[in-house]
Amino acid sequence: MNMQSKRFHIIGVIMAMLAACFGANAQQAVSTENSVDVKFRKALDQNFRTTFLVDQSREQVFNAINNVRGWWSESIEGATNQPNAEFLYHYKDVHICKLKIVTFIPGKKVVWLVLDNYFNFTQDKTEWKGTKIIFDISRKGGKTQLQFTHEGLVPQYECYKVCHDAWTSYIQGSLKDLITTGKGKPNKKEGGLNAELIKKWGLQPK
CB of 184 within 8 A of CB of 70? Predict the structure, then answer.
């Protein structure tokens, strides 16, 4: 190899090294930026969320979710297992809410939209109104994962602490038990409904 060829060879090696170096830095910069973006979005996402894994199939988990009287409350009025159905949850006159099933994908996902809501223990009686209750079902590590998200239920809500504890109990306790043992721990059916609100929302108690 003559001197000129050696010179071109050395220049080529240097250029390759620089390209590799800048390429790695660029890739690292993009990776860092994406990592920061994910952390930022997670910091902003304050929605209540809880997740668990079970041995049962996605279909079994899906069916249990839709058996709302089996894990949330026996005092549910209306259909809970079909698309676009509306149903009413109530606990005495403490909490009453009207929900609509807006997403219904067998074995994968269920979403409820809170159409209206009433709490007797918060300054804003309608907290929850317009929020979404989301059940995402997937397979993970040979098990079925259920991720529950109450989108819009955030720490700024006056009801957050109460709702956090209640949802944790219903999802991690009652719903999980219904899936794994066939028996949940729903609220028992009882009277004492707020008749005026029931009439307003167009759903009558059984």
Answer: yes
For residue 54, what are the β-bridge partners?
144
Binning pLDDT at 50, 70 and 90, where does residue 2 land?
Answer: very low
Spatial CA neighbour of 187 closest among 95, 121, 65: 95
Selection from 158, 59, 157, 154 nearest residue 109 by Cα: 59
Decide if 102 contacts 113 (C-beta within 8 A).
yes
117, 91 in Cβ contact below 8 A? no
DSSP designation for 189? P
Q: Which positions ≥6 away from 136 have C-beta within 8 Å?
A: 108, 109, 146, 147, 148, 149
Q: Give me the pLDDT at residue 51, please.
A: 98
DSSP per-residue letters across 14-50 = HHHHHHHHHHHHHHHHHHHHHHHHHHHHHHH---EEE
Rounded to whole angstroms, the Cα distance separating 78 from 23 reads 59
Q: Which of 202, 200, 198 is nearest to 90 (CA)?
A: 198
pTM (2 decimals)?
A: 0.73
At 54, give phi and psi (nearest 5°): -140, 165
Q: Which of 102, 104, 74, 103 is nearest to 89 (CA)?
A: 74
